TrEMBL record:
It comes from marine sediment metagenome. It holds the Pfam family Creatinase_N. InterPro entries: Creatin/AminoP/Spt16_N (IPR029149), Creatinase/aminopeptidase-like (IPR036005), Creatinase_N (IPR000587), Peptidase_M24B (IPR050659). Residues 74-144 form the Creatinase N-terminal domain. Transmembrane segments: none annotated. This is Creatinase N-terminal domain-containing protein.
Length: 230
């Protein structure tokens, strides 16, 4: 996601779904994105940010003969129907590295998303390359924010401020923790954000960190209101 702004629905619904961004260590280079073929209609929006999108795996697409297609459909047809995707993700990775002349070079891999078994499979798949851990490198790079990233963070803070104000207007005896959460998240959505984790706690139990807001826990007089959100 960091290298090419790609986020797959498959990551949320099918654990273990793999996707890779390959970026050569050259000034001006753009990443090559390796993704499941089912995500091709999503990936078309990323074309301005990447050098190439390489699909792998199998998914059935069908295009009726003679039907006029829009630009997106035409691209998906060309990529997923007219050509045959590479069968497996590791074969796709090896193919891309070879095409870029990197299959016998030093490869930095963000190891934070890999199980030991998958990591070893990746290494074994490119025997001529030297694979090294690169999570710390990416973490350091992420510390430097572009103007666009700064603007996004400022927008997020503004959305949270409005959400806090709107939900606190509910404060009255009898209102539930869930009521607060619903108004808070609705406001964040309306301001263009996506809540990841929102919790609102009332009273003495507010010191708990991993309890979901309750539709039955009601605000009482002089009670503490505690927010936790991402």
């Amino acid at each position: 996601h960091f290298l090419c702004n790609y986020e797959s629905f498959m990551h949320k619904y099918i654990p273990g779904t793999e996707a890779y961004a390959v970026l050569a260590n050259k000034r001006g280079a753009r990443p090559t994105l390796i993704i499941p073929v089912i995500d091709m209609e999503l990936a078309v929006d990323l074309l301005p940010y990447v050098d190439e999108i390489v699909p792998f795996g199998r998914f059935i697409y069908y295009s009726a003969p003679g039907k006029e297609l829009c630009e997106r459909d035409e691209w998906v047809k060309k990529s997923a129907i007219d050509s045959t995707p590479i069968p497996t993700v590791l074969e796709a990775v090896a193919s891309v590295l070879k095409k870029l002349g990197l299959d016998n070079k030093r490869i930095g891999l963000d190891e934070s998303y890999f199980s030991p078994k998958l990591y070893q499979k990746f290494v074994n798949n490119i025997p001529a390359a030297e694979v090294t851990d690169a999570f710390d490198i990416f973490r350091e790079i992420r510390m430097v924010k572009t103007p666009d990233e700064v603007e996004i963070m400022e927008q997020a803070v503004r959305a949270l401020e409005v959400a806090l104000k709107n939900s606190l207007r509910l404060a009255a005896e009898g209102v539930t923790e869930k009521d607060f959460q619903d108004v808070f998240e609705k406001t964040v959505f309306e301001k263009g954000g996506i809540p990841i984790f929102t919790s609102v706690y009332f009273g003495a139990e507010s010191f708990y960190n991993q309890v979901l807001p309750s539709p039955n826990k009601r605000l009482t007089a002089n009670s503490l209101i505690r927010y936790r959100y991402n």
